[in-house]
Amino acid sequence: MQGVANIAFNALLARSLQKSQFASVGLAFGIYFFLLGIHRAQVVLPFILDGGLPEPERSRKAEAWWWFNALFIGVMVLLLVAVAAVLRLAMPDPAQAWVVDAVHYSALVTAALCMAEFGRRWLYQHGKPIVAACASLAYLVTGAIVAVMVLLIQGGLGMGIATWVLGTTTFMTVVIIAAPPRFVSLAEIGGVWWSHRNFAFWQTLTHLPYAIYNNSVVLLIGAFGGPVAAATFTAARTLNSPVLSVVSAVDLLDKPRAARALVSDGLRGLKSSIVRTRRLLVFLNGIYLALLLLFTGPILKLAFGERYAGHEMEVRALAVAFFLICLNQPSETMLIVLRASRTMFLTRLCAAVSAVVAIFTLSRAFGPLGCTGAIVLVQVINLACLSFGERYAARKWAG
Fold this sequence. Notes:
The protein is built from twelve helices and no strands. It is an all-alpha fold. It folds into two domains: 1-194, no CATH class; 196-399, no CATH class. The longest helix has 78 residues, at 217-294. The radius of gyration is 21 Å and the shape is globular.
């Protein structure tokens, strides 16, 4: 439902916003995805790992993670507001306004969606998947209503961003009603993070290069290709975004299951869990991506009208890249469960360097198509690096 919602929101906004405004949406989400990765490393992954503790320790730590999450998001938002204020003074040129607007509105997007990301996992940890589905439905309906209003009255960029903010507000309302958090002491709030500080540090470090070639790659595309390339990439990514929704949904259960498999059956059990996850992702996403490859033109026109006609090849190239992500994600789960953070950092650093070189070179030669083609190349390199890292981490753990 969240994947469908995000497609609907972006499709409606792409029809009503100018390309420079839609580029601001894409860039704002690039910034959000960058910070989401840091949030994931510092908050979400440790929270998931603590989910395997026995009661009542698990519940007590979960409450502390809720409040640590709120404080962490607040700090990120304050930093974004400060950066936006500085950029507004440093970049007075109207041609650069799309960048300043992106940073400004990324504060709202980050606050809303990072809270929803934690809230979704909070419900799963509390054994309430049906409530999570209801919250996602509320997110879809609320956001769709706002996006339609933007289209009808040409509400502009600010109202467009409200699509996600108000959608997330209804989502979190459902979360808090279903599983309200209890207050805990400041010592407990700081203590839950402190016990995972080394793991969180290396996970954050591994995220920085990952963001460059994956979720926040639009920042590179905007820097090298400009607002038109950023807007085109955002449109192409929108049609492929259900793949990431499926990967994220599977990831909710995959890492805890993989961790249990390692404890109960050792390395053999972990490898078996990883293989099953990879097959599941290929099956679920392969069907959708195959249809997208076959019917790119009609789907692109249905979603965006004539605004992005002629960009079918960009959508197809990104579909190939997203299929490769389905192969890569389970390998990363294996490295995380084995706590091979340094190995993961090296694989991601290699992919990040490749991304900068490839996007810079191919965007100059082939424009937006070169940007998406570069992403395919980077995912191929990433797959090779992860295959090597997976074997190395397994041998090290066994030895």
